[in-house]
Amino acid sequence: MKLYDGGRAPNPRRVRIFFAEKGIPLPELVPVDIAKKEHRTEAFTRLNPLQRLPVLELDDGTALAETMAICRYLEALHPQPALFGSDAKEQATIEMWNRRVELGLFASVAAVFRHSHPAMAELETQIPEWAEASRDQVDDHLWLLELQLAGSPFLCGEVLTVADITAGIAIDFMKPSRIPLPEEFAQIRRWHGELSARPSWKA
Amino acid sequence: MKLYDGGRAPNPRRVRIFFAEKGIPLPELVPVDIAKKEHRTEAFTRLNPLQRLPVLELDDGTALAETMAICRYLEALHPQPALFGSDAKEQATIEMWNRRVELGLFASVAAVFRHSHPAMAELETQIPEWAEASRDQVDDHLWLLELQLAGSPFLCGEVLTVADITAGIAIDFMKPSRIPLPEEFAQIRRWHGELSARPSWKA
C-alpha cells in the first residue's frame, strides 16, 4: 500500500489520525504538495480524477480516494478498535454524527477557507458571499456539537469514534480559516483539549 | 419503526428506494410537509435538531437522521442484497463512488435548487452567485459519471449499489433545479433509463 499524502491539509490528517487510532502502521507515504499544485498533474489525475488528497493505492493498483472510503477500508481489514461502531444501531448513530459534523461544521469551515483565504485565491474561484454565508452557519453547528458533548465524553458515548476525528479536525481547521472558537463552548474546549493530547493527534 | 417522510424531496426518496431495493416493507410513514414548514415545528426539531428529512424512529425511541445512516442501519439488519458491497475493497469502492456523487453532482444540483428556485426563496437565504458557481460544476460531475458508466452497467460493476441510488436521484433532481441533461451523455441516459424502469424507482 501507498498513501498519497497532503501534509497539514485536513483530509490527509483525518486518515493519518485514523491509522494511528487503529494502531495500524502508516504505509509508504508519497507526499503531494498542494501549494505546488502537484495534485493537478496528469499522473495524479489518473489516480484520482477529482484531484483530491489523500489517495490509498493498494498493492493491486486500485486507487481508493475519499477519506471516509479509506477509513472504512481500514476498519473492514482491522475491525478493532471499532471506530465506526459495533452493532447496527451504534454504527448508524456514529454515521449520523459523522455526517452531521462533516456536512455541517466541517463543510462550513472549509467553505470559509476556500472562499476567503488569500492563499486559496489562486486555486479557487472565490465567492465572498458564500464565505460569509458559511461563516454565519458556524455558530449553529458549534452549538449542536456543544450540546451533544454535554452528555458524554465523546460525540457518541464513552469511546472515541470516527465522528470525533472528523469533528476535531473541523475545529482545528477553524484556525487557518480565521474563525475564532468563542469561550462559551466549554464542552468543545474540554473535548478538543483531550483529543489534541492523544498521541494520534500528532499524526 | 416509523419513517418521517418528506414526499418527493430527494433524500426521503433515496431512503424509500433503498427499502424497496432491499425488499424490506416500508414501516409506518409519518408525512411531514416541507412546504408547510412542518419540519420546523418544535416536535420535529426534538427528533432532528437539523430539521431535515427523513428520520427513522426506532421502537426504543432512537431517532436516526441522515439518509446514509438510515440506509446503513437497514443494511446491517438485512445484509442481502448487499447494496454497500461485500468485501473490504468492494465496500470502500462503493463508498468512494457514493461520496463522489453525493458531494459532487448531488451537492451541486442541490445548491442550484436551494439558491435559485423561486419556491426556495422563503426557506433559504439565496445567494445567486453560489447557484451559478454550482451550476458551472455540474458538467464536470456529469462527465465523471459518464466515463465511469462507460465501463460497466452500474456505477460499481454488474449490480446496483447505493451509489447508483444516490446518482440516479441526483439526475432526477436536475429537473426541478432546471438543469437540462445534454444529449451527449449517452451512458447516463442508458443507465438512468434502466434505473427509472425498476419497480423501486416509483417508491
- One letter per element, helices H and strands E, the order of chain A comes to EHEHEEHHHHH
Q: Which stretches of chain A of 5+ consecutive residues score pLDDT under 50?
A: none
Query: Per CATH, which architecture of the largest domain in chain A?
Result: Up-down Bundle
CATH topology of the largest domain in chain A: Glutathione S-transferase Yfyf (Class Pi), Chain A, domain 2
| Coarse morphology of chain A | globular
Structural class of chain A: alpha+beta
Strand content of chain A: 5-15%
**Number of helical runs of chain A?**
7
Whole-number average pLDDT of chain A? 96
Description:
- 2 copies of one chain form a homodimer.
- By secondary structure, chain A is of the alpha+beta class.
- The first copy, chain A, has 2 domains: 2-77, Glutaredoxin, CATH 3.40.30.10; 88-202, Glutathione S-transferase Yfyf (Class Pi), Chain A, domain 2, CATH 1.20.1050.
- Chain A contains 7 helices and 4 strands; from the N terminus they run βαβαββααααα.
- In chain A, strands 2-1-3-4 form a 4-stranded mixed β-sheet, covered by helices on one side.
- In chain A, helix 1 links the parallel strand 1 and strand 2 (28-31).
- The longest helix of chain A has 29 residues, at 88-116.
- The mean pLDDT of chain A is 96.
- At the A-B interface, helix 3, helix 4 and helix 5 of A face helix 3, helix 4 and helix 5 of B.
- Chains A, B: Residues 1-82 form the GST N-terminal domain.
- Chains A, B: It comes from Bosea thiooxidans.
- Chains A, B: Pfam families: GST_C_2, GST_N_2.
- Chains A, B: Residues 87-203 form the GST C-terminal domain.
